[in-house]
Specification:
Number of strands: 5
Largest sheet: 5 strands, mixed
CATH topology of the domain at 5-92 and 127-150: BirA Bifunctional Protein, domain 2
Shape: globular
Radius of gyration: 18 Å
Structural class: alpha+beta
Helix content: 25-40%
């Protein structure tokens, strides 16, 4: 069994650009470019499943840990199946002073996140997290045409609750 393909964001941008698809190296991928990258990866590496990491720090949330080797990059990743993101995750900032500095860079008033920052003042280990779109995984795994077919109570513009 082959190991899971892992590419950096810069490598993903290069794959897109080399295939005639415009993608700025400092901008997040659009949904369309994610799909196109999925097709390119499938053709080049014969896999539908890959991980892309080292996103530009500027396109990630303020609480994402900067990369130690290149502070313009982040310790974050996305997992893709068939050109669609199914999971997004990152190492979180655990240092209160860095968290405050990053919030300022994003224009987030300290008062709105004070209790969050305070929770790190007693010490916190380096940690990470990720959020998976389970309904999207089921849709892609089963080859269904619409995510609403995977949800018992799908949300739509006209339906927000069961």
């Amino acid at each position: 069994m082959n190991p899971t393909l892992r590419i950096t964001f810069a490598e993903g941008v290069k794959l897109l650009n080399d295939n005639g698809i415009e993608q700025d190296a400092l901008s997040d991928l659009s949904t369309e470019n994610e799909r196109k990258l999925g097709y390119i990866v499938k053709e080049k590496y014969a896999t539908d499943f890959f991980i892309m990491d080292e996103y530009p720090l500027s396109v990630r949330p303020f609480y994402t840990m900067p990369n130690a080797k290149n502070p313009k990059l982040s310790n974050s990743y996305d997992v893709f199946i068939r050109g669609q993101e199914i999971l997004s995750g990152a190492q979180r900032i655990h240092d209160p002073e860095l968290l405050i500095a990053r919030a300022k860079e994003h224009g987030i008033p300290y008062a709105t996140i004070a209790s969050y920052v305070d929770s790190f003042k007693h010490g916190a280990q380096p940690h990470a997290g990720g959020g998976i779109g389970f309904s999207r995984v089921v849709m892609l795994f089963l080859g269904l045409p619409n995510i609403r077919k995977t949800c018992l109570f799908p949300r739509t513009p006209k339906r927000l609750s069961p």
